[in-house]
Design a protein that fits this description.
The complex is a heterodimer.
Chain A: H1 6-12, H2 15-33, H3 36-39, H4 42-66, H5 72-94, H6 98-120, H7 131-154, H8 167-187, H9 189-195, H10 197-203, H11 205-231
Chain B: H1 3-90, H2 94-116, H3 120-125, H4 128-142, E1 146-151, H5 160-181, E2 185-193, E3 196-203, H6 216-228, E4 232-238, E5 242-250
Parallel strand pairs in B: 1-2
Antiparallel strand pairs in B: 2-3, 3-5, 4-5
Chain lengths: 238, 251
């Protein structure tokens, strides 16, 4: 086995993993400053979970790539599965209707089941570019976002609130933008990587920037709780 | 332009168009939500004004009903007593004069009792059970029929508007029973089941066909009034077997 080459790793470090790690650390700091009751908030916990997870697997995947080790399995496991499930759970926490929450839970089970079948049948491999799984989870995620907007439009509970001051609205919007903008790129990633590497390098910036934006927003949700508690100013309601 | 450049531009413009569509979707959601909020506010305003109107009508009707009751009392009771006083005072016998004094005291008591009923504060100060008892006593005093009340006192705590609406609906139901049903007995039963309180007004009168159109409008009005205080109005009647009105109100 080759020795670990840290120089190559440092060379590869750019704004993307550094921003994600910075956001994750700021999120952890914000979470540590919250009271015990505020930490129990499901949306806050899931937001922190997503922010930390994304930073960790991007850092790890970057490290593997710098050592010339195929890192697809990291993205397939953490991005396509663990992070997707956390996003599903986050969207589920925003829903008001019990049967809608149940639908999201069923979608998670459905997604995992399909993934298991695809992997066990050999149709997809844990170390391939993971287009099918990404396509599936993106479609299901967009469905969950649709469910939130459907509730926003139809439920009386949402009538008294201003959506622009709701964390759930911004987090769902960020999720919607992130998954809708990135899934076309992810599913064509292998083709672009093998045939048009320069275009691939350009378009991959879109999901990267969306990911930073989405993580920043989730981190802001944690701080919003803190600000509203310390300064009695509610920027967005979490 | 090379093929690669055109592909890049296609992806770029496609991406911009897609982002624009997404933004449009989110903005549309916000705008639609705002419109829904506006409609809801207008609906609430309308309901509020309807509620106030209903309450005002109910207060007026209670006052009118009270005034006609006073009129009847003045004519049938106080008028009779005053005639007796006049007759007694015209007599030279001392015992008749003494009787007249007794009648005067009775008149004073009756007038005091009547004067109380002239303002709605009196109605507000009474409990619903007391009010119903008072109404049933009056019905029995007319000799039209027997009347009884069974209560578990679950309607003791009521908001002013709830009490006024219930009073008016009960008055109307009793009045309907007396006018149209010719019952031998009217029973009012107050009970609760979980979070729902119920007043049942039952008579053993003629009953009527609830599918007939002419019987609907008054009942519809009573049902609407119950709705304004968050209650329900139910009516069952069978020709020849009497009528049961059920008024439900949550705690």
């Amino acid at each position: 086995m080759d020795q670990i080459n840290l120089d190559r790793f440092y060379e590869r470090l750019n704004y993307y993993p550094l921003s994600l790690i910075g956001i994750a650390l700021i999120g952890l700091l914000g979470y540590s400053l919250l009271s015990a009751a505020q930490r129990k908030n499901e949306a806050v916990r899931l937001s922190l979970g997503i922010v930390v997870l994304v930073a960790s697997y991007e850092f790890f995947a970057g490290f593997l790539a710098s050592q010339k080790i195929v890192n697809n399995w990291v993205y397939n496991l953490f991005n396509s599965h663990v992070s997707a499930i956390l996003f599903f759970l986050l969207l589920r926490s925003f829903l008001k209707r019990k049967n809608h929450k149940k639908w999201v839970s069923l979608l998670i089970v459905f997604f995992l089941l399909i993934s298991l079948i695809l992997h066990s049948s050999g149709f997809v491999h844990y170390n391939d570019s993971g287009e099918y799984i990404l396509f599936l989870n993106s479609v299901l995620m967009l469905g969950c976002c649709g469910l939130y907007f459907f509730e926003l439009m139809t439920l009386d509970e949402f009538l008294e609130i201003d959506p622009l001051k709701e964390f759930s609205f911004w987090a769902t919007t960020a999720t919607l933008f992130y998954f809708s903008s990135s899934f076309m790129i992810y599913i064509s990633y292998e083709y672009l990587y093998t045939h048009h590497l320069d275009i691939c390098n350009m378009v991959i910036e879109i999901p990267r920037n969306m990911s930073i934006l989405s993580n920043f927003l989730l981190c802001f949700g944690i701080y919003s709780v803190l600000i509203s508690d310390r300064f009695q100013i509610e920027i967005i309601h979490v | 332009m090379s093929e690669q450049e055109s592909q890049f531009l296609l992806i770029l413009f496609g991406g911009i168009f897609f982002a624009f569509l997404m933004s449009l979707f989110v903005v549309a959601m916000v705008v639609l939500h705002r419109q829904r909020q506006m409609q809801n506010r207008q609906k609430i305003e309308h309901l509020k004004s309807e509620h106030e109107k209903t309450l005002l009508n109910v207060e007026n009707e209670i006052q009118q009903e009270t005034l006609s009751q006073i009129g009847r009392e003045l004519h049938d009771n106080i008028g009779q007593l005053l005639s007796l006083i006049k007759l007694s005072l015209n007599s030279a016998k001392p015992e008749r004069q003494q009787e007249a004094k007794g009648y005067v005291s009775q008149v004073i008591t009756e007038v005091r009792a009547l004067s109380k009923t002239l303002n709605l504060d009196w109605v507000a100060s009474l409990s619903l059970d007391d009010f119903i008892r008072e109404q049933l006593k009056r019905i029995e005093a007319t000799g039209f029929c027997q009347a009884s009340l069974e209560s578990d006192q679950s309607f003791l705590e009521l908001k002013k508007e709830e009490k006024f609406v219930l009073i008016r609906v009960i008055q109307e139901c009793l009045s309907n029973a007396l006018k149209h049903a010719q019952p031998d007995h009217i029973t009012i039963r107050i009970a609760h089941n979980g979070s729902i309180r119920t007043i049942e007004i039952k008579d053993d009168g003629k009953g009527f066909d609830t599918t007939q159109k002419y019987s609907g409008s008054g009942m519809h009005n009573l049902a609407n009034r119950m709705k304004t205080i968050g209650g329900k109005f139910k009516l069952t009647s069978v020709v020849g077997k009497g009528t049961l009105v059920s008024l439900e109100l949550p705690f």
